[in-house]
Amino acid sequence: MSADAAQRDRAGWLRRDAERISGTLPPLLVEAERLSSSIVMGVHGRRQAGPGESFWQYRPAHPGDTLASIDWRRSARSDRLFVREMEWEAAETVLIWADRSLSMQFASDKAPRTKVARASLLAMALSVLLHRGGERVGLIGTEAEQPQNGARQLQRIARILSREPEEPQDYGAPAAYALPKAGRVVFLSDFMGPRQEILPALTQAAGQGMAGIFVQILDPVEEDFPFRGRTRFESVAREIRHETDQAKSLRDAYHGRLAERRDELQRVARAAGWHLILHRTDESPRKPLLRLHAILGGV
Amino acid sequence: MLGIGALGFLSPWVLAGLVAIPVLWWLLRAIPPAPKRLTFPGVRLLLGLQDPDRQAAVTPWWLLLLRALAVLAVIVGFSQPVLYPSARLSDDGTGPVLLMLDQGWGSAPDWSDARAAGLAAVDEASRTGRSVILWRAASETGLPEPVPPAEARSLLEASQPAPWWPDYEAVLETLQSGEVELPSETVWIHAGLDDTAGSAAPLADWLLAQGPLRLIGPAEAAKAVTPPRLDEGRMQAEVLRTGGAPDEAAVFAIAEAEGGGERRIGVAGVSFAEGETAATAIFDLPPELMGEVTRIQLASRATAGGSALADAALRRIRAVIVDPAAGDTTATLTSASHYLRQALAPEADVSEAPLGTAMDREPAAIVLADQGDFTAGERLRLTRWVEEGGLLLRFAGPRLAATVGQSLGGDAAGVAGEDPLLPVRLRRGGRMLGGSLAWGQPQSLGPFDSRGPFRALTVPEDVAVRTQVLAQPAPTLADRTWARLEDGTPLVTANGLGDGLVVLFHVSADAEWSTLPLSGLFVEMLGRILALAPGQVPEPPAEAELAGTLWRAELQMGADGTPRPASGPVDPVPGERMVAREIGPDLVPGLYLRVDGQGTTPRAETLVLNLTKEGDTLSPFPPAPFGAISETFGGNEPVRIWPWLIVLAIGLAVIDAVATLWISGRLAGSWARPLAGSVVAGGLALAALGGGEAVAQDRGEGDPALIAAAAETTLGYIVTGDQRIDRVSKQAMAGLGFQLSRRTAVEPGPPMGVEPEEDELNLYPVLYWPLTGGTEPTDVMLERLATYLQGGGLLLIDTQNGRAGFDGASAAVMRQIARALSLPPLEPIDGDHVLSRAFYLLNAYPGRWRGGRVWAEAPPEGRTADPDSLDLPQFDRVDDNVSPVIVGSADWAAAWAIDDRGEPIYPVGRPGDRQREMAIRFGINVVMYALTGNYKSDQVHAPAVLQRLGQ
């Protein structure tokens, strides 16, 4: 990225910081709102009466019903007393883990954003959607870990995701976290870490009995491997290196290994009834968001 | 400043960086080109993967070479090399400068260049305030001292080349002896020749050890000729050179002209193959002309070595044998004339004639075999002939014996009177020895007179004299006797008569009186006698023969190859030194006369001393030792090479960068090709910058110069190779073209120099050919010119020597040219020639010179230039009756030549007269003549036409 572009970005961030101070929504939140506005969130009704906001049914009043619970307008149309029952709307708990390690902070010149930016956007948009649906959202590994509902939680998540990622690790893996018994988990990562670190963590998470979704976010070059010539590949932290004389000749082998990694992810996911969503940063974020919504809302 | 050959380095210490190249090579070999670094999170997936075909991680050799070359170019470039550096002396030198001049015979052709180079060096020394040791290697006798530059300058300006070899050996000895101040720096102006001892190389090495050494020499060393000799009846001489590229040379045979002076009577050409050092020039001369040759000389760049005096080896004496008995006898094989003919044949052209007509043949010698008395008329003519320098060789015999004492009466003692046609007075009656009635034994020969011409001959034992005529004893008899019998009786006597010489053998020329004619001695004796014939220069005699003799120079060879009468008092030279050929200041090549009292030989013996002798070779000046700067005279402007080297280095670096990118695969296919193309184009452009001149020289198909010449009327001139003449020719054609454009409808393009051997000729309507001295057109050139003329071309030949015209050498060359071009007969043009009215009306054709004649093709037979005859031109000729050549000597080029600003360059005529204008008009007429042919020839008939119209 050239110095000019960096300068422009910095100016943009400054403006957005100013907006944040002046009380408007964090930019990520704005973007996420815009992204999620296209999706109509249905109420996760329990199809039974309970505490909720939407009307469920009228039922004849029983003894023991409080006077205040009598719906007088309905009762006036007949001779019996009716109670207005609302549908029970139990708030779902969704925990999101957005990988903010160094490897996620990579964007090739073919991608508009870094992977971590895309992961943050998806996490935020999902949070907004869930907030609208009245669900409780938490961000694993941050101070917003405790799932909560409400605008305050949304603001907190937006603030966390807008911060510069400060993860020192090259590759991220979900921390071993005691997940609540009920709820859903969404893992947003490139899952490029070492196999022996990533898979056990995922298996452990999937084995806790919660439903979950893996979203693998990859840069287009990570999928296409369009390199040729004498090259030394380095990880973002420059800790891992590989040098080759003919990068082109490695393409097939790389594709093979990438497919292998995805197969493993798929296997882990399927064993626990989870889902795997593949996403490239050069594609529209709406696609994975729709699938996330469908999976989360459809179940 | 360090020098290698013609290359000088202004900052030689930078060259020390060359040591770094091997180190660099090693480093470059060890370190492969850096791979591009790429951040790639997916690298984890790559771990453990192997390249399918893993290359050695070293730089390819050609990239190494490229980089090494680039570094080399940078290092050499920053050492600032200069080709033909102009500075004669190093900038920071102190101490005396040795200015060594070759000054030998070989330096004569380029003497002005050599002196100019020397003066330039002296000037530089004067600027830096250094003293100069001027050392003329050929003539320095004392110990040269460092002198102020001003004095060195005057000494140098007064120096002239010497007609002998430089003595580098002596220079080296003197320098090493320590008697002279050692120079801190040397400028050595040589002639491209080593000395005879080959001591130039050691001297150069020694001088280089003392300090910087700069060698300045001519581009081409002088050639030499060996003395002419006869081989199978033809005169031949070796032309010597030091080798090198194929070359040609011509040798003139020179004879004395009537009324003094010299004239050239023959020319012979030689051609050298590549590297050949000697070639034989064969003269095509009739024998009688051959005898007149006094010397031969190179046609161009003549020097003392390039000129050789002819000696007796060439001379064929014309001798006439008069044998009164020839008619009497049929026994021709035992007749006196037979013996004489056989004995004389090696030395002379022998013929026989009666006495009455013998003198009509203008012989050098008349041999009388036993002539009795003469008629009064014969005696008178013969006496006069001898007095004018003839050699009369007489033999005794019965007739002579019978007439002794009768012709002039004679006294009582029977002693014959003084007969001028006999060297001594004879006694009546001879003596007979060993006969049946005589008691004496046949006499053998005694020792020869030690001062006479036979002194070097050995006396054989077996010659017996039976009968002889006897000389009258007289006080002068001993001085006139060349050979005696054992008992002292004179056998051969001689006496001068006027300028001539009368020699008498006291025996007969046949074997009747003695066995002398049967011996080999007879031939040798006759040879020695014939050597005394007028105009004879004998062959170099043996050393023993010259011992104790003294010689003085009559003619001395000048450094320019022209012999001049010896001037001033010249010390006589002993014969031993002549034989040893110690040629130097004390023994100048030339013609020598014997001066030690030649009592018995009235005609002084002569001897020729040439600088060269048969079998000599010329050795070239040794190549400059490493570290010395070598350059040639003039011409070579200093060429700074280093900008090109730096450009080359930059170019190489660019190529290297691209190649490195290509190797590391960073050149994507889509834009690799155009980039590589631009790099290649850049490289080509660089190459074109360097080799631009070479490209321009190549006149092939589609040559722009040819196209330009064909697009317009273009005046051409023949390139002679002499830069001055070619420059004048070019300027002249430009000037003529300018005048043509101004005055006529002809607007020629820029003039073109034409090399007839290579270039296309048919594009030029007129070719100007400056045919100056020394021009030797080659066969190819003449053949192509002949083709050009057959195609209707016009050749304007200008010998540029004014009134001298075709006298002398150019006549021979001109004849050769005329034959080769198959030219028609030429005659001087008169006022009626079309040339005189093709554009302007002219009655003279001056150039820079006035008064020379202009020649063109003679009018055909039967069609004279009669203005009244209305003959139509012949239509059967392709050339429209245009003379194929116009030949003159007026140096028109100098009159036409203009400089860049259009001003005339050379003064022509006196101010006020219109000589230049006339020359220009002539030029315009020539071009018009070439372009319009005989169009204006009817002008010649205008009066007649008008007259007829009037009728």
Describe the SSE topology:
The complex is a heterodimer of chains A (299) and B (951).
Chain A: H1 3-21, H2 27-36, E1 55-60, H3 72-76, E2 82-86, E3 93-98, H4 115-132, E4 136-139, H5 151-162, E5 184-189, H6 195-206, E6 211-218, H7 220-224, E7 231-234, E8 241-244, H8 251-271, E9 275-280, H9 286-298
Chain B: E1 2-4, E2 7-9, H1 20-30, E3 36-39, H2 43-46, H3 61-78, E4 81-83, E5 97-101, H4 111-127, E6 132-136, H5 149-158, H6 168-177, E7 185-189, H7 200-210, E8 213-217, E9 224-225, E10 229-231, E11 234-240, E12 247-256, E13 262-272, E14 278-283, H8 287-290, E15 293-298, E16 307-309, E17 317-322, H9 336-344, E18 348-352, H10 355-358, E19 365-369, H11 376-387, E20 391-395, H12 398-403, E21 426-432, E22 467-471, H13 477-480, E23 481-484, E24 490-497, E25 500-505, H14 520-530, H15 543-546, E26 550-557, E27 563-565, E28 573-574, H16 575-580, E29 590-594, E30 606-609, E31 629-632, E32 639-640, H17 642-663, H18 669-690, H19 692-697, H20 704-711, E33 716-718, H21 723-743, E34 752-754, E35 766-770, H22 779-790, E36 794-798, H23 809-820, E37 826-828, E38 855-857, E39 885-888, H24 892-896, H25 915-932, H26 937-940, H27 942-950
Parallel strand pairs in B: 5-6, 5-7, 7-8, 8-31, 17-18, 17-19, 19-20, 20-25, 33-34, 33-35, 35-36, 36-39
Antiparallel strand pairs in B: 1-2, 2-4, 4-32, 9-11, 10-11, 11-14, 12-13, 12-15, 15-16, 21-22, 23-24, 24-25, 26-27, 26-28, 26-29, 29-30, 37-38, 38-39
Helix pairs in contact in B: 1-3, 3-17, 4-5, 6-7, 17-18
